[in-house]
DNA sequence: CTCACTACTTAGGAGATGCGCG
DNA sequence: CGCGCATCTCCTAAGTAGTGAG
């Protein structure tokens, strides 16, 4: 009966959503849908605005296994004395013990947060006893965990197969849903297990307890008509609703930030694919009006209104440097990171002259995921002058753009072009950069073609500042490759000598083996090819040391550019996209002709 | 305008998987 | 056939962007 009420509430909510949906519909009218829909059998009914599905059925999320108490021979000690913890306290103690090898378990913020949350899980008596984290000895718990990891690693083939089959069974049961007559893969069908929260960078909440999610915390979203997922035995769902204006199948509220987590479809699903295609179509539309927009913000740099000037400078950065929008964030809730609109005075330094360039802006700030953005950029004089103006009478901690935020900026952008927001510039600039770079490069053999492709991909990754930690084994594997190259070089020299010898013999005394010269020639050629391939690989790997290509490939580069390139260059799509990428971009692989222009 | 809330995309790292080589 | 490394998959945090109330 409660669930009935909930769905009534939902119906009312939907009515108030009507207005929103009108706006969305404008957007889809701007972009013409038909061609791709036919290509992909997406032709079935196009629903009224905002409706994402007509039928949705699934088995609900998969819950992690319950906590298994410690075996009798593993103990926790406080102040040197054996202490048998309550189940709840023990579980959390084990979370900490498992992290003892990580550097962050030594950080004060992490330890303080952990200890505070751990004590909340303790019984009254435990809380009285355990007052100092330093006096806690998790040694045996830690050792047990390490032994378990080791044991898992040393499993026999048969044991591994058993585990694999069990996992497959879970995927079969929970990993798929039925959405409008199609069986679709679910992206994340597992409820996130409890543990200690570790944010990125200097996160103020690191070490806090991320609580176990119960079915009573979970909202299920599915069709009224179909089967409703059955909660685990002895449990009930928080709510079952039937909202077909959203794409999620289940959700719960996470206790660290209080944000909502969703169970959603896999990237290869029709719903996600259409959205992805739409994203690139909007970016292509920007291509057709970007000149006007650029002229406009150049004019705005001279505006009488400070707000307009700030908007223009921000837009200049977003366009030229592919900066993120930079929503404001709640202080103390997350690590201190910024994007364009939230840049502070301390994040830029102005240089009238630097390394032979005039009007250089030096950026140094932490962006998303605490990845450092460091760049020295010559800018046009008008931008430089404006920045000087914005900096006047401000302290390092003050906002650079005090009259601007992302909502003001996006409102302006959507007035210039329907669907235009700050992030569209990133998509547009990434994709157009790839297309340009690929045009400039021509190579003969496949290895070189792929190096060219990777270089173009890399140019985009650098633009978008997609970094990675250098792989732990980088130096070693680089040295190994170099050794292989050296060995091959020697082999090549030898092969050449042998060829010469063979030629000489053939000339002087007529050969005992008439094919010998041919064979030696082939050996030299093979050797040269292998050497080239390795050298190309070495270059590629070196240039890629700290650059992550995956993110741009997956999220910013219109796959049709890549597919068209493959067709033109006669490179197999498999060479640039792995299986899951091919799945995600199936729509582009199906529909793209060699003459595609972004 | 601000704030809270929601829904969705984008992100790097850890661990699992698998592949080439001797 | 096992080993060591590269690649891929999974995980979930951290963004963007929109809505509506006050």
Descriptors:
598 residues, alpha+beta, DNA Topoisomerase I, domain 2, Arc Repressor Mutant, subunit A, Topoisomerase I, Chain A, domain 3, 4 domains, three-stranded antiparallel beta sheet, 19 helices, 15 strands, 50% helix, globular, DNA-binding
Tell me what the structure shows.
The protein is α+β, with helices and mostly antiparallel strands and 598 residues long. The strands form 5 sheets. A 4-stranded mixed sheet has the order 10-9-11-12. The longest helix has 36 residues. The chain is 50% helix and 10% strand. β11 and β12 form a beta hairpin. It folds into 4 domains: 149 residues, DNA Topoisomerase I, domain 2 (Beta Complex); 84 residues, Orthogonal Bundle (Arc Repressor Mutant, subunit A); 151 residues, Topoisomerase I, Chain A, domain 3; 161 residues, Topoisomerase I, Chain A, domain 4 (Orthogonal Bundle), CATH 1.10.132.10. The structure holds a DNA duplex (22 and 22 nucleotides). Keywords: Coiled coil, DNA-binding, Isomerase, Topoisomerase.
